[in-house]
Amino acid sequence: MTSSPAPIPLSDAALQALQTHASQGRAAWAAGDLPQAEAEFLAAWALIPEPKPAHGHAQSMASGLVAFFMQTRQFDKAALWLERMREAYGPGPDASEADFIGAALAYETGDLDTAFQRFQALYKRFKRRPFQDEDPKYLKFYLQRAGGASKP
């Protein structure tokens, strides 16, 4: 079995700048300034050198950008960042997080057949574990669509 190489660390200066942009992005988001929040988050992402997936911070930044775009209902942008998130996570056990987010994104955009198929694949592999700490509406949707196989 081969193991993934250790993530490449960022320099102290790049890490500090990344954290500053991310913090400013969260503050702008909290203040309702979505364009400024997006600009700060993208500035933080830009500080990660290529190849981005080789850096540990690429995972958290990409998943954070997906969350930002989903929560602000910018679903087209969320879908683009979901692909970057998949690249950052790569194959393996962590890929199921991107699979869940992909299912949730399909649900949120009204593509319920795709959402069900993706949730079903996760449920078959992991049962309720991927649904833990997530909005209960996703598990409820899946179970209802699956024929009420069990109660949430």
What does this structure look like?
The protein is mainly α and about 150 residues long. The longest helix is centred in the first third of the chain and has 19 residues, at about 10-30. About 30% of the residues are buried. The chain has 7 helices and no strands.
- Structural class comes to mainly alpha
Characterize the biggest β-sheet: none
Helix content: 55-70%
What are the low-pLDDT stretches, counting only 5+ consecutive residues below 50?
none
Rg computed from alpha carbons, rounded to a whole number of angstroms = 17 Å
How would you describe the shape?
globular
- Element-by-element helix/strand order: HHHHHHH
**How many H/I helical runs?**
7
Number of strands: 0
Distance between the termini: 37 Å
Oligomer: single chain
Mean pLDDT: 91
- Proportion in β-strands: under 5%
Q: Concise description?
A:
With 152 residues, the protein is an all-alpha fold. The chain contains seven helices and no strands.
Describe the secondary-structure layout.
Elements: H1 12-30, H2 34-46, H3 56-71, H4 75-89, H5 95-108, H6 112-126, H7 136-145
Features of the shown structure:
152 residues
